[in-house]
Specification:
Blueprint lengths: L12 H19 L4 E4 L2 E7 L1 H29 L12 H4 L4 H19 L12 H27 L3 H8 L4 H16 L7
Antiparallel strand pairs: 1-2
């Protein structure tokens, strides 16, 4: 005896699309893993493009799916895929000096998404006002750096002020460039498929 299934929808198109976009952002972030530079004032923490993807995910996917994207990213790295800075992977990276930054990624993506879109549901990324977008990106930056400094402080057994001096202050100009780049990308026609 068979049961008709033509009226049963196991997973809706919206959920399928959101999962696909979350996976795409996790993969894009992973693809930029090998692209890192040494900061002359902070050689223990690389400069990467990965936070740019965190920002874009928050703006494009909103808080929930942006968070999912970066949980998937962390799981991929934990399982051994070379998705972290320098093409590294594994629990050692997550528990190492820069692990706090990685744990901050899902929280930052969710923060950016929540501030950019508010409580009224997702809006088109290019419809988010520039002041609101900048506030969202600055808040996301604060989350990434707070988590990074906390992790660095814990692992290196140094005080919070020393951690901020070591891994936050040298990177603020780079963070400003990433915020500006995100605003430019969101406002460009390249981001939105019409």
């Amino acid at each position: 005896m068979s049961t008709p299934t033509d009226s049963v929808e196991l997973v809706g198109d919206e959920v399928t699309g959101n999962v696909a976009r979350a996976v795409l952002f996790a993969a894009a972030t992973s693809a930029t893993a090998p692209v890192d530079m040494v900061h002359p004032l902070a050689p223990n923490v690389p400069i990467t493009l990965q936070t740019l993807w965190v920002y874009l995910a928050g703006v494009v996917l909103g808080p929930v799916w942006a968070g999912v994207a970066f949980v998937l990213y962390l799981l991929a790295g934990l399982l051994g895929l070379p998705v972290f800075a320098g093409g590294n992977a594994g629990l050692g990276v997550l528990l190492g000096p820069t692990g706090g930054f990685l744990f901050g990624f899902p929280l930052a993506a969710m923060t950016v998404g929540a501030i950019a879109h508010g409580t009224g549901g997702l809006t088109a990324p290019d419809a988010v006002s520039i002041p609101r977008l900048v506030v969202a990106l600055l808040a996301g930056t604060a989350v990434v750096y707070a988590a990074g400094a906390a992790g660095y402080s814990l692992v290196q057994a140094i005080g919070p002020v020393a951690a901020v001096s070591a891994v936050v202050l040298p990177f603020l100009p780079v963070a400003g460039l990433k915020v500006a780049a995100t605003v430019a990308i969101v406002r460009s026609d390249a981001l939105i498929a019409r």
